[in-house]
């Protein structure tokens, strides 16, 4: 919801104080927590070529059609997590015999407390890239729960 109004310069400070007091009395820490809506809980063993073909059918993705967010539980970190350029997270994770690279763009903080061998729950979407003519599937991290 948006509102438009005109405030005289001499009333601006008083308006800011009143607006902040109003918001402060109603906004809790719970309101400020990042919420992620999971579309489906899956195992890595569910990710097949048919699954990916169906994923493609949902595209194109954008503001009116966001990428689905998946959750996988108890994935093992199989290599020491990396923080790339001080701001990106990179993990190699295994679950149910399948291994995927997981990347968290501008989410370097996700790997600060994770070590090789840890079991983690992942929230992610799929990311496809091409390298030397081959398409590669990786996980685009939304969040991690240890």
TrEMBL record:
InterPro entries given in the database record: RecJ_OB (IPR041122), SSDNA_exonuclease_RecJ (IPR051673)
Keywords for this protein: Hydrolase
One GO molecular-function entry: hydrolase activity
Residue span, RecJ OB domain: 38-143
PANTHER family: SINGLE-STRANDED-DNA-SPECIFIC EXONUCLEASE RECJ
Protein name in the entry: RecJ OB domain-containing protein
